[in-house]
Amino acid sequence: MRVVSCLVAIAAVGWCADFRVADYGAKGDGKADDTAAIQKTIDAAAASGGIIVLKPGVYLSGALFLKSGTHLRLDEGVVIRGVQSLAGYPIMQTRVAGIEMKWPAALLNVYGQSGVKISGQGTIDGDGKIWWDKYWKMRREDYEPRGLRWASDYDCQRPRLIQIYNSSNVDLQGLRLERSGFWTVHICYSRKVTVDGVTIRNNIGGKGPSTDGIDVDSSSDVLVEHCDIECNDDAICLKAGRDSDGLRVNRPTEHVTIRDNTVRAGAAGVTFGSETSGGIHDVEVRRLYVLGSVSNGILFKSASTRGGTVENIVIHDMDIQDVHVAIGVELNWNPSFSYAKLPEGTTNVPDYWRVLLTPVPPELGLPHIRNVQISGIHAAGAGRAFAVRAYADSPLQNFTFRDLDIAAKVAGSIQNAEDWKFTNTRIQAADGSHVTVKDSRGVTGLTD
What we know:
Structural class: alpha/beta
Number of helices: 8
Distance between the termini: 66 Å
CATH architecture of the domain at 233-448: 3 Solenoid
C-alpha cells in the first residue's frame, strides 16, 4: 500500500519519502538553534524529492532555503521561530521596496527554485518585535531629524518572513504567519505562485511597522485566495519597482487573481503601488472582505518619479466596514518617503542611496492609471467615500463604477479624472455632502 501511495504521489507532484528533521539532529525544544539540522533535512529531501516533516515543537532557526521538488509540511503544533540575530540571515541579492540590493535573507526562502510547496496548520513566527523596535529607534531618533526618512526602510535591515524570488510553481497553503520583522510574504520575479488559506497576524505584542501581508512584486500568474490578514501596512499589495531602478528592470506584475480573502487590519484591503515603475496589469480582485482597523478599502498609490502604467484592473463584490477611505487614489504618496533628497553635507553614501537619488526625467516619472472597473462595492461606516487625486498631465482614465453603495461621514472628492462612468451608485454622507469633482472631464452618472 505504501508503494502504491508513493507511486501516486510521485506521478502527481514528484514527492514521496518523508524526511524527518529529528533524524538530522533538530531538537524542537525552543532553545537549540535548529537551522543546520533543518537545512540538512531539506537538502536530503531535495536529492530525491521528498517531504520535510517536523514533529510538534518550537524550532529556533535562521534563514532556511527550500529546494526544487521539496515539500515543507508544518503540522499543527509545529512552530518555526526566527532567531533574533542578523547573523542568522545571510546577506543576498534581492529586491527591497522597489530597488535591487543586497539584504538579509528571509526566514524561509524559495530562491531560484521550481516545484516547491510549504503547507500545514503549523506556525512560522518571525518573533519580530526586536526588529520593529530597532526600526522605530533608527527612524525617529536618527533618520527623520536628519531628513532621511526615505532611507530608513533600506538602512534598517529586517528579515522578511517568506521570500519567493525568481521561482516558479510554488504553493503556500494553510499556515499561520506571525510577527514578521518586515514584509510577510514577498513574491518577486516569480511565476505560477499560489497563496491559499494563510493566516497572517503581525500585531501581536505591538504593531510591526511595514509588516505587509502579501506583496506580489514584478511577478505573473499569481493566485491569492482564502487568506485572513491582520498587519500594520498593506495587506495585499501589487508592486513593480521604484523610480530609476524599477524603470531599468521594467518587469510588470501581471495576471493576478485575488479572491475570497479577509483583511482585519492594515493600510488597505488591496493596494496597487506605490512601486509602479514596471507596470501592473490584468488583475482581478473579487469577494474581498475588509473589516475593522483598515485605513483604505481600495487604494492606488504612486509618486511623480515612479512612472509605469496600472491598467486593466477589475475589482468587484467587496464588503468594506469602518475604513477611513472607501476608495482612494494618491499619486503623490508619502513625499518624505517617496522622494529621496540628500541633506547638505552628507558623506559616505552607500551605493543603493545613489540608486534612490538617481533623477527620473519628468516625462518618465508620471504614473498612469487607466481602464479600471469597480463594481458591487458595499461600504458602511467609512470616514470618506472617495479621496482621489492624480495629476493634470496624467489624469485617471476610463474608470467604470457600477452598483456602489457607500455610507460615509463625508462624501469626499475626485480630482484629475477623465471618462469616469457611474451606474447605480449610492453615496450616503452623514454630513449631507456630495462628492466634489475637480479638474476633471467626462465624469457621468455620479449620484448621491
